[in-house]
Design a protein that fits this description.
Radius of gyration: 23 Å
Structural class: mainly alpha
Order of helices and strands: HEEHHHH
Distance between the termini: 42 Å
Strand content: 5-15%
Largest sheet: 2 strands, antiparallel
Number of strands: 2
Strand order of the largest sheet: 1-2
Helix content: 55-70%
Number of helices: 5
Mean pLDDT: 88
Number of domains: 2
């Protein structure tokens, strides 16, 4: 009996490889986009004693926790936005537009990739977005961030090479 007949076909391995990349890249983009809406809220709460009861003296403590909301949106982290504002190659209007669009673009591209909507175009858009992020980090001389984005771009290239193995997509030819 030929043992190779019981092994999955190479195309199935390619399909699994593409799905793993698609899942990772899509989740990475969606979660990164959602983090653009994250903020910290500090609340006053009563200090609790060892029995879980409020302190008899009425002592209060400040407790911070993470929340998500439109009020907390920051496409570019404030320290980076300040550095970009000083960069002469980035006009202020372009920086403001990029800041406003970055979070929604990441979420949109990530969701499109997760559902398999036009995977070739979505992956290309994903690569262009990471290339644009790289330009900003190059201008700020943030070599570590550029290297991380380079790895993301390589993963997108790998996904583009494997996209022919995708078996579940909306508008698969695109």
């Amino acid at each position: 009996m030929d043992s190779s007949s019981s092994l999955p076909s190479p195309s199935l391995a390619g399909t699994f490889a593409f799905w793993v990349l698609r899942l990772w890249l899509g989740l990475r983009a969606v979660l990164t986009g959602l983090e653009k809406y994250a903020g910290k809220v500090t609340e006053q709460q009563p200090l609790l004693d060892e029995f879980g009861e409020p302190d008899i003296n009425g002592a209060m403590i400040e407790v911070s926790h993470k929340v998500y909301g439109f009020d907390h949106y920051h496409g570019l982290p404030p320290p980076l936005a300040a550095k970009f504002a000083e960069e002469p190659l980035l006009p202020g209007w372009a920086l403001g537009l990029y800041d406003a669009c970055l979070g929604p673009a990441l979420i949109l591209i990530g969701v499109a990739l997760l559902i398999g909507l036009a995977p070739r175009i979505t992956l290309f858009a994903h690569g262009l977005l990471y290339a644009s992020l790289s330009v900003g980090l190059i201008l700020l001389n943030e070599s570590g961030g550029v290297a991380w984005l380079g790895i993301h771009v390589l993963l997108i290239v790998a996904a583009l090479k494997l996209v022919d193995h995708d078996r579940v997509a909306v508008l698969p030819k695109w």
